[in-house]
Amino acid sequence: MSEIVCDEAERSPMGVQVPLWREAVVLGLGLAAYYTFPDDLAFLTNVLVTALFVLSLSLVLGQAGIATLGHAAYFGIGGYAAGLFAIHTLSDPIAGLLVAGGAGGVAALLSGLVLLRTHGLTFLMLSVAFVQICHEVANRAARITGGDDGLSGIVPGPLFGAFDFDLYGRTAYLYALGVLVISYLVLRKICEAPFGLTCRGIRSDRLRISALGGNVYLHLLAVFSLGGVFAGFAGALSAQSAGVAGLSGLSFAFSGNALVMLVLGGVRKLHGALVGTIVFMVIQHIAATINPYHWLFIIGAMLIGSVLVLPTGIVGLADTIAISVRRRVQRRGREP
Fold first, then answer.
1. Residues 6+ apart with CB under 8 A from 194
2. Could you read off the pLDDT of 58-77 as tens digits, one per residue?
3. Number of domains the chain contains
């Protein structure tokens, strides 16, 4: 496994880790949006929450190659866990976030014990079946989850005991932004570690990793569980910021949309999840405002164009342009 090298975009040629400029860019853009669009903080918070969920899917699919359409199950389980915890136990948002992450991780671990023994189309269909089962269980358990009406009455306490969640969504937005940036930092470190390199090796060639002595099943189970943890975090942010956890978080459509966002931004790069989510949701918001009946046509055309013209996503195109420009500059520098 020592032959597996880190992606060129994540390390410098000398093997030294690139400074955390991407996290700084995400934080800077998030703060700029906070002051530029103060009347749209609810929508922007939803963008951040969805970006965290797509980021968790990027870890599972982009790094380990686990193609799933049931990832929304862990988002929904995390949302319900945070909501029930806030209503019946403790309203502290950080505690609820950790509980939701634990619930999502445990659910991913238990389901992964069975699902990950399959692969390909079988795994894909079983992941769809799993999220549908979770949806139906939540719908039937109306006394606990609220059923079709959703689990309402979720009132998170002050953040760090000092910042109340106001009607304008200021605290919720900054809270979601902070969790997103920290999560991106943690996931990037995981991907740069030997564990992340092994996952990428499994994505490329399972048989080779197995021949080198790696336990493919345990590595996939670990990354699948980690993806469930961060999906649970996203579910908690959604429940705490909106004050309700509903069945929409357990829907197959939500998993499908997340996959579209990831493909649009770039499957193989973590920051592709952020770019794809922002582009998708902004275009969706604008298209739905212009024509609320046919906005799906625009989204469909955008996806088809992305797959045909940008097979590596928006981030892949940007990386290709950057490499081309760098090579031209180097060639000019060598010319007498």
1. 1
2. 999 988 889 899 999 999 99
3. 1
